[in-house]
User: Which sequence fits this backbone?
């Protein structure tokens, strides 16, 4: 299925429904280091396993960086 991640089209290979949690792992992200917006709505990482990605969805992923 095709989705957009930070403005770039990405192909996710899956022959079943795939959760946002699984998608984030496939993309190489960890829940404690990013904030995710799915179709213009911020999604709490605790809900990732309950939300399933569909063809054409748009993800915006922002990395959290610590510093002083």
Assistant:
């Amino acid at each position: 299925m095709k989705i957009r991640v930070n403005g770039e089209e990405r192909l996710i290979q899956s022959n079943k429904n795939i959760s946002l949690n699984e998608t984030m792992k496939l993309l190489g992200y960890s829940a404690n280091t990013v904030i995710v917006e799915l179709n213009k709505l911020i999604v709490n990482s605790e809900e990732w396993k309950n939300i399933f990605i569909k063809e054409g969805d748009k993800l915006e992923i922002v990395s959290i960086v610590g510093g002083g």
Q: What stands out?
A: The first strand starts at residue 2 and ends at 5. Residues 3 and 10 are 5 Å apart (CA to CA). The chain has a mean pLDDT of 92.
